[in-house]
Structures are given as C-alpha cells and as structure tokens.
Amino acid sequence: MEIRPVELNDNEALAIAVRKVLIEMGVPKVGTAYEDKELDAMYESYSQSRFQYYVVENQGNIMGGAGIAPLKDGDPSVCELQKMYFLPEARGKGLGKKMIHLCLDFAKANDFQLCYIETMPNMLDAQALYQKVGFKYIDHPMGNTGHTSCPVWLIKSLV
Q1: Are 137 and 129 within 8 A, CB to CB?
Q2: Structural domains in the chain (count)
Q3: What residue numbers bound the domain in which 128 lies?
C-alpha cells in the first residue's frame, strides 16, 4: 500500500471510501464529515496553503486517507487532523500511525503549534491510536468544524 498526496482523480473514490467507513461505524449523516461539502472535492479543498490530504492506495484502489488543515474559525496556530478513515482491508497494518506522523510532520513544517481532532465515542481503536501518539482528551470542542455530532475532542502539542 502506498501513501501519497491526494490527486484530482481521487475525489470520487475517496468520497465513496470515507462515506462507507462512516456508515460502517454508525456515524450520523448530520453534524459529521459525512455531510461536509469538501468530501466530494478533496483535491480542491486541500489545494490551499497549510492544507494537505494524503490517501492510501492499493493497486489503484483508494483505501482511505487523512489530512491536516487550519482549524476553521480557530487560532491560526491550531490545525485539525481531518477525515482519517480507512476501509477494513487497510486496517491493522500500521497505516494509521504512519498517516498521523506524516500529517503531524506537515503541520510542524507549516508552523502549527497544536493539533486538534474530533471523533465519535464508539471509535475506540482510533482513540487508542490518537492517545498512543500523544493526543490528550479535552472537555470542549474547538473552532467551527460543523461536526456537532462528534462529542469526543483531543489535542496534541506540536512544540
């Protein structure tokens, strides 16, 4: 499996993969990444300064991805780890940890000082991974992500 930056021709397959994972995880379609406008145009959405999205590809098939972007309506020194989802066949191979490190390296190189993430209570494997790489729980949301159905928030210092 290869990790690489998102490309224009990934948009459709990536949106399908992410939505499949969200449905599998029982995530509400409202107030989560499922309804985000950029999900159908990931290449364009992440083609801005201080934005980066990576995909996992296996023999031409998009298996998932993760990205970093400035926290919407937040402090410019805070980024958000976004849309980190993998199809079942890509899980358990260490790709999540590699992807997080790649995203955090990008964040540090772009002068972010804190990284924020939102998730769902039932995504325990993801939370365990976030904690393993140094994320800590906080008791409130940050920024204006629109993800009102995500009640679990974590943050990590990048300095």
Answers
A1: no
A2: 1
A3: 2-157
The torsion region of residue 58 among left (phi > 0), alpha (psi -120 to 50) and beta comes to beta
Q: What is the pTM of this model?
A: 0.92
Here the tokens at position 95 are 């790709």
**CA 39 to CA 152: how far, in whole Å?**
21
The mean per-residue pLDDT over the stretch 102-129 comes to 95
CATH of the domain at 33: 3.40.630.30
Residue 136 Cα distances to 28, 84, 123, 133, 152, angstroms: 24, 17, 15, 9, 11
